[in-house]
User: What shape does this take?
Amino acid sequence: MSRRKTDGFTLIELLVVIAIIAILAAILFPVFAQAREKARQTSCVSNEKQMALSVIMYSQDYDELFPEAFGYDTGVGGWAWNYRLPVPVSWATPADARANAATGNWINSCSPYTKNYQVVHCPSSTNVGFDGGNAYTGTGAALVSMTYNGLLQSYSQAGVVTPANLPMLTEGTGKAALQGYSLAFPALDCPTSSQLSCSYIPCGGSGNGSSSVWFGTLNQTAPVHTGLNDVAFVDGHVKSRRVGGSSNGTGYQIDFWTGYTADIPLYAWWDGCHLWLFRPDINWN
Assistant: This one.
């Protein structure tokens, strides 16, 4: 009597198949991750382009002056250059002086042109929350991944020497998405409340706007998209710029920052008063 042969796989064959699948997965998963990140970067570039166009449209409607990075209100001591301002304004209670100052915030000022607060968020960034005690009680907080070149505050379009080379919007907080507020990168230092003007003054001058500050990346890496950081320039075009990857930065005409620890910036290139790459009166050709 003969024994009928049964169909199936031996243990060795199953192990070989599993090993092949594991090898293929190890090869393909990084490729899939890169493709996903590339799609996210494309979305971020599109959002930054829309926001850049809204800033340009705003300036054209307001005597060709760029929007403010922050507003003014005596309730916060004058210029709110060192305050977190709600985005949108409705996130703060009406009685909050920050709500009054926030009407001058560049995102809120340009909202009539975007009709959408989602354009300031990049899906590649990490929600870091409010970063401290939540001073606001409203609803609808926006996630903000973009930062505005605060040296352009109330600055004339005609005063920009090289629009194609001057950053207007960047991912200046690195991979951090700020929940319900925004920062300028860099921000003009405007501590004197009695001065009703706050705009860029080149190094060597005095008064509001003669120096600027940078608030850091909240311990987030500067590269957001596989070593890259998206930048929108004053002429409206957007491109990705390589940042990080070196303990000494990559040069003051290329990288915003110098001195990194695991791609987290420690310092920024500056001329003693302002960050190098953001000065509107410098010819970068």
